Amino acid sequence: MASNATIFKVALQIADVDRHYYQDHALTLARHPSETDERMMVRLLAFSLHAHEALSFGRGLSTEDEPDLWKKDLTGVIDLWIEVGLRDEKSIRQACGRAKQVVIYTYGGRAADPWWEQNRARLERLDNLTVMNLSPDGSRALAKLAQRDMKLQCTIQEGQILMGDGTSAVQIELTTLKSPSE
Predict the structure, then answer these.
(1) 15 forms bridges with which residues in the sheet?
(2) Which of 100, 137, 153, 159 is buried most, with the most CB atoms less than 10 Å from its CB?
(3) Alpha-helical runs (H) found in the chain
(4) CA proximity to 15, closest of 144, 124, 161
């Protein structure tokens, strides 16, 4: 955790009907000085979508050999590697070599579309890769929920995602750009 990182405390209730996962999480998020609220909240969304007792946040933007989130088994093998943003193709390929499953969450609207077109052909060859795109409206609305002390509820049902703080709620649209090969 960077010494000048901003610390956010999150009480997160997850009701994932699709996975039959119902759990409360007390999380501490460190936002790197160069990270936006939008990116931090997309990381929190990724946590919500893959929540598991073994899922943990990486050390942050300044650590290139770790993902934003990961899940390891008891032997240290990386089951799941999650990145947020527009990663370069080489680092994604390396992650796919290190982990059983890799998921990339892109966001940011206009920047995500050319990134995908530029990298699509090479990334489609990676059998254990999933690429999801979050709509610009969704990521901006998520950023508005960011506070230093958050109490959030995330409900996932039939692929629909709703994140709220008791006062306002955000319907989140994710588009699958690439699914893992069977």
Answers:
(1) 22, 155
(2) 153
(3) 37-50, 89-98, 112-123, 136-143
(4) 161
Q: Distance between CA 145 and CA 25 in Å, rounded?
A: 17
CA atoms within 13 A on the CB side of 28: 5
Q: Which long-range contacts (CB under 8 A, 24 or more apart) does 57-66 make?
A: 57/27, 57/29, 59/1, 60/1, 60/2, 60/5, 60/30, 60/32, 60/35, 61/32, 61/34, 61/35, 62/2, 62/32, 64/91
Report the candidate in 75, 4, 15, 77 with the shortest Cα–Cα distance to residue 51.
15
CA distances from residue 33 to 37, 87, 144 in whole angstroms, order as listed: 10, 19, 18
Collect the ranges in the chain with pLDDT lower than 50. 1-2
- Helices marked H in 9-88: 37-50
Cα–chain-centroid distance for residue 48?
8
pLDDT for res 4? 83
Q: Taking the CB of residue 174, how many other CB atoms lie within 10 A of it?
A: 18
The pLDDT assigned to 110 comes to 81
Cβ(71)–Cβ(80) below 8 Å: yes
Per-residue burial over 141-163, b = 16 or more CB atoms within 10 Å of its CB, e = otherwise: bbbebbeeebebbbbbeeeebeb
